[in-house]
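Sorry to interrupt, but I need a hand with the structure work. Could you write out one complete protein record for me, on any chain you like? Could you add the entry underneath, on a fresh line?
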Amino acid sequence: MQTEAVVEHHSGSQSSCRTGSKSWQYSDLMEKVDGYLMKYTNLVTGWQYRYFVLNNEAGLLEYFVNEQSRNQKPRGSLPLAGAVISPSDEDSHTFTVNAISGEQYKLRASDAKERQHWVSRLQICAQHHTEAMGKTNPPLQTRSQSLLSQGSGSSPGSQHRINQNANSLLGVSQLQHSSLYSSRKSLLPDHLLEAREMMSQAQGQHRDLIQSIEGLPSSQGPSPLDQDLLLLKATSLATMNCLSDCLHILQIQQMARQKIALGGPAIEWLEPKIPDILKNGGTLPSITTEDGKIEGTALERLEMESCDNSGEQEEIDFSQEVDDSSSSEEEDLGAVEEERSVILHLLSQLKLGMDLTRVVLPTFILEKRSLLEMYADFMSHPDLFVAITDGPSPMDRMVCFVEYYLTSFHEGRKGAIAKKPYNPIIGETFHCSWRVPKATTPPTGIPQEGTSCTSDCYNVHFVAEQVSHHPPVSGFYAECQERQMCVNTHVWTKSKFMGMSIGVSMIGEGNLHLLEHGEEYTFSLPSAYARSILTVPWVELGGKVNVNCAKTGYSAVITFQTKPFYGGKLHRVNAEVKHNPTNTVVCRVQGEWNGTLEFAYTNGETRVIDVTKLPVTRKRVRPNELQGPYESRRLWQHVTESLKERDMEKATEHKRFLEERQRKEERHRAETQTPWRTKNFESKGDGWVYYQSLWKTAAHSTSSVPPQPNP
């Protein structure tokens, strides 16, 4: 083989041998890779089959409509120099190619093996052309002399070791270290160059590990398909991908600071600074509507009312509520894809494990509603909520609660992309209600058109309030007076940066009261994770939730499973309902929280629920003009309107006005030593309880009545 000739005849022309060695190392890796892959285009078109060709010499990934048209001009191409190629954690077939310019291809292979083949060849090609980036391309003689001077002091043993690693790019980087360093010195700072060299070595060791595992004989010892070895391979690959992405972020950020154009725009923070007029409590005279009305007037009125707002009881006229006409759908792409460079800029300033509570995120990733309104989505199936108290036995009621709980998350995450709702302002509230026809209990509990629900419907009322700013704690409460049931919950959202994802812990507790049965159910909430934040972010839930009813002795354990590195399915959940005194499992649930759920009972019966086909009851809200100044929709209306118009600059100005006003109010309370007073909730122990909750009213009305014995 040629590599043996290089080792055995090293005493000849060293320049020639070195050049031949370099040529062998990369040319041997320049495997012809082409074939059909599925390419994600947009929401309308979705996934389409395209014929892809890896052009190793040019460092391009090209695609054509089909194989027959490959002799024509490519439909599209992506430069691989500086690109990051990452397997997706959505499934085992998908991967992304992120060019240094910010352009991205989201691709899907036919199976995991084909994906790994494409990813490995693309990474090798990207590595080679990234190292060549910025070089002045000296003539061959100069490169040979440089390599000769570097290797003149090397022993035959060291040369032999280098050629042993010819199947990795480690050999290339070692042979070219001197010339590579000098040619890129003006392009990258020393520490990034050293980091890339270390990454090259680590990638070589990773490939050696994979080859060693795959080369194990299947007849004796551990097999290449051993579960521990498969996990080791997957963990090693995931680690390398994460490190590669992080290094890519640092490189792009450094290039932006040096204003070096490498095929993409310089990265700058796109959000405008808050105008001085806003810092002084003024208005925004430049923000006007088409009919000439100055919206700054509304902002000025909020400023005047704000300092006297705490503790005021809200007078809510439910007769003013109308069916909500606003759309809950969010654009899945658009601004997030266009502003990807801003996300890269933001990520470059974060540290692993960093608390994101006080980090101001860019406006374009915001969902067009407040977090308080998002909590109302837990009640999007009010018929299932009301049906809990209909259970004929304690076991049935616990199973009904688990059913309601598992179906309550899907509606809040209807979009494919993870967006962030507005951080509520302290004192902000949200009110709404639902009507559930009395004659039509689940699964069709939606009022029909033309049906009068004033007397033939149960009314479920909801109120949420931001009761604390640091830490950010929200309280929300829902009740159905006719059925004598209510639920009270307080949640502290704590978010952390986790590298390529963001984790949000929902710390708190909920209490469901069924006054007709004298039962109280306590429950917690799962954590949420925004995955793939460099590409198309998506949400998954994770963690263990406990549900307990002390009176009946029934409990449930609900486990939201996050997708593992290797294999596994998305959005899996399982639950187990148990009677604690007898330690008997009475029901098991498995499936997806945003798909199909199967309930299996101990008597052999099963029941299947498709969450996507459950009817959603539209909530009823009061029009913005009838709401108070601190109710969510009126408070954020200018931000929401600007986001709908895709005017990010105007949305940012309104958003920062509200945030700056909140800081001003906090300073005012601190200076005057005025405590914050909530409107609807009061602090009790470690939680927050609604002032006029049903169980308080019931306890007060029956305080003089002697308790009745249980039947």
Remarks:
- The first strand starts at residue 34 and ends at 40.
- The chain has 20 helices and 26 strands.
- The first helix runs from residue 2 to 8.
- The radius of gyration is 31 Å.
